[in-house]
Specification:
heterodimer; A: 436 residues; alpha+beta; 2 domains; two-stranded antiparallel sheet; 58% helix; 17% strand; B: 234 residues; alpha/beta; Rossmann fold; six-stranded mixed sheet; four-stranded antiparallel sheet; binds adenosine-5'-diphosphate; binds magnesium ion
């Protein structure tokens, strides 16, 4: 009996292929959009959280703050911004924290005839572990490098290849040269006794210094808008001494051992630094954990908005089913009357039309799953090609999402098919038989 | 006890404020095995009577016994079962389902009676063979002539071995040759003991029945046995 009804449903649907197809299209689009939206948001989540976690977790960043006009007036030139000494003071005050100062300048690095122009970073040994970024060959910057202003350099994997090809760069000599402001910097280094002692004669160019390659970093790729493999590291102290000439530094990266104490340390550090800076609040502390939270909150907003759109699409598909089923019931009034006359019970009629609408939604749901998966991957590829560093925004398709979308589609088919089916089952047999 | 007993049947249609009495205090007995024609002008209440006899609608008042069942007291759901088991319908417009073969159409009442697929198939082909459609089992409606379609409908009406065969203007949509063939089928069924009621407005068709009841304005105007000569003729 049930089999015969299902068979009938298929016959009726295939008897009017165009109409059934168009009705299904609503469900197909609805289900496909649910799946694609979930897959894309999940993909974005994985990609963003991954790239944040790849940069190291439990991190606080200290930056100098851009002061407003009022603040400038208030502090009347007393602001000092971030100094190398701040890093040392924090280490002393909070021994449980790991602190790495970070700054950079744009320069050129030369090895024999080959050279590369890029960003040269000055930092401390702690940086490597904090950013989850380790040397593949040789070593990273060491405490000795820092203490003795060693002219040691660690190369990103791309840089090593550009400068040395397949040769091992470890122990080789390179020259680092500060772009642009070299004159001014050169003057400042002159005041420094140390540079006159060992620098002057070796320099074929003003502001150019010999360094020894001590390590090559592992390959890390691109993320957060920078290519990690094009980074060049030298000790902070060396950078200050030879290139910057001032102990102002760009930022501090601070690792908090316990994720739950991020907020606490963020507040403590702020207090400590304001105090150190004579009451001037000229620094900003950025909490990586909070950043992660913000990203996740944003993703939830996306989920709700996109999910809402997909949900509406599915409902519209359901309304399409209801509409076409009502037309079908009217068209087939005489058939319903005849079936009742020869012994169809009301529930048989109800079941017949319900199975028809459910069949539409099951087939539509199935095709929608396929379309959803295809378009989610299509979108993933599109993002990968469109955005530099968006390469890992793959669509993430999870079986529960498919199950939910499919169940929902079938539910919509049943729900919206119910009214027409009830309408059909309530017909009066004598009247239905003679319906014109 | 008679197969059909109607006592003081009234049927009143209400359309807005307007009440139309389609049947007025109709009383009638029909015995098992009778071949009855009900005739009357258009609007005399023939179709209304067929609906009541066929358990498609309840009378407004009065009593109806069919094969011992107290139809006027039964709920809708049981009327469905009675229609399925005890009544075979034949309509002027055939009412075959589209996109179904002759065989599938004949199987339909048995499907609703929850008969097994094998039984459905065997009984349906047997009936179609009986009405002369042995080689049309898998034809669709649009591949059959009107007379053939009506014979499929007769086979369908007989599927569950009904106590009563109810035909509403069965030849109305047919040419005289096919109509005649259909009446011949009815006569054969009658000879096998099938109770048949044919509703028609055509006196010539009514003549081929055993008994002829004439309706006028919802009442029985005459109820007479046909001449024995006309019953045995042909
Ligand atoms: N569904 C209905 N609603 C209102 N009046 C009806 C309905 N069906 C039949 N009638 C009226 O009942 C009377 C008998 O109709 P009907 O039984 O169809 O007669 P016949 O079949 O002999 O032509 C007519 O006057 C008709 O107008
Ligand atoms: Mg009529």
């Amino acid at each position: 009996m049930l089999l015969a009804i299902i068979h009938d449903a298929f016959k009726n649907l295939s008897g009017n292929l165009l109409r059934s197809g168009l009705t299904m299209l609503g469900v197909i689009i609805g289900v496909a959009s649910v799946i694609a939206m979930i897959a894309i948001v999940e993909g974005g989540q994985v990609s963003l959280v991954n790239s944040i976690e790849r940069l190291g977790t439990n991190l606080l960043f200290v930056w100098k703050k851009r002061l407003t006009v009022e603040e400038r007036r208030l502090y009347a030139g007393r602001w000092t911004k971030l100094k190398y000494a701040d890093a040392l003071a924090i280490r002393q005050k909070f021994p449980e924290l790991t602190v790495a100062p970070v700054d950079y300048f744009d320069g050129q690095i030369k090895a024999g005839k080959r050279d590369f122009s890029g960003r040269i970073y000055g930092t401390s040994p702690e940086y490597s572990e904090m950013r989850n970024f380790f040397p593949a060959k040789g070593r990273f910057i060491t405490t000795v490098d820092i203490q003795e202003w060693q002219r040691s350099v660690v190369l990103g994997s791309t840089i090593a290849e550009v400068l040395f090809g397949i040769e091992s760069p470890i122990g080789k000599e390179v020259k680092i040269f500060l772009h642009g402001r070299n004159k001014k910097r050169d003057n400042s280094t002159k005041k420094n006794g140390n540079s006159t002692k060992e620098g002057k004669k070796e320099q074929p160019r003003v502001g150019e210094y010999r360094f020894v390659v001590v390590g090559v970093m592992e390959t890390k790729g691109e993320s957060q808008g920078k290519d990690w493999d094009e980074m060049i590291f030298i000790p902070s102290t060396t950078m200050i001494r030879y290139f910057l000439g001032t102990d102002r530094i760009g930022n501090l990266v601070i690792h908090v051992p316990d994720r739950n104490r991020m907020d606490e340390f963020s507040k403590k550090l702020n207090q400590f630094l304001v105090q150190r800076h004579d009451g001037v609040d000229d620094l900003r502390i950025h909490n990586q954990g909070e950043f992660l939270k913000t990203v996740e909150q944003t993703l939830w907003t996306f989920r709700i908005v996109l999910g809402g759109i997909a949900f509406v699409a599915l409902l519209v598909g359901g309304v399409g089913i209801m509409n076409i089923m009502l037309v079908t019931v009217t068209e087939r009034t005489r058939e319903i009357g005849l079936r009742m006359a020869i012994g169809a019970r009301r529930q048989d009629i109800l079941l017949q039309f319900l199975i028809e609408s459910t069949t539409i939604s099951i087939i539509g749901g199935g095709l929608g799953i396929i379309l959803g998966i295809v378009s989610a991957y299509g979108f993933g590829n599109l993002v990968a090609q469109a955005l530099p560093g968006g390469g890992d925004w793959g669509a993430v398709i999870e079986p529960p999402a498919i199950l939910i979308a499919f169940t929902f589609a079938v539910g919509v088919g049943i729900l919206f098919g119910l009214f027409p089916a009830i309408k059909a089952s309530k017909l009066d047999p004598a009247e239905a038989l003679r319906y014109q | 006890m008679a197969l059909i007993i109607l006592r003081n049947i009234r049927k009143v249609y209400k359309t807005g404020n307007l009440e139309v009495a389609a049947l007025i205090n109709l009383t009638l007995n029909i015995e098992q095995g009778e071949f009855v024609a009900i005739i009357g002008q258009s609007g005399s209440g023939k179709t209304t009577l067929l609906d009541i006899l066929g358990c498609l609608s309840h009378p407004t008042s009065g009593e109806y016994w069919l094969d011992g069942d107290n139809v006027h007291l039964l709920p809708d759901s049981q009327l469905t079962t009675i229609r399925n088991k005890k009544i075979g319908f034949i309509f002027q417009t055939f009412h075959l389902l589209p996109r179904k073969t002759a065989l599938e159409n004949v199987q339909l009442p048995m499907m609703y009676a929850r008969a097994s697929r094998a039984i459905q198939h065997d009984r349906a082909s047997e009936l179609l063979t009986m009405v002369g459609l042995k080689d049309r089992l898998y034809h669709y409606n649009n591949q059959l002539s009107g007379g053939q379609q009506q014979r499929v409908a007769i086979a369908r009406a007989l599927a569950n071995r009904p106590a009563l065969l109810l035909a509403d203007e069965p030849t109305g949509n047919l040419d005289s040759q096919s109509g005649n063939d259909i009446l011949t089928v009815f006569e054969q069924l009658h000879q096998q003991g099938q109770t048949i009621i044919i509703i028609t407005h055509d006196p010539l068709i009514a003549q081929r029945a055993e008994r002829c009841i004439t309706l006028l304005d919802g009442k029985i105007m005459s109820d007479e046995m046909a001449h024995p000569s006309s019953a045995t003729k042909g």
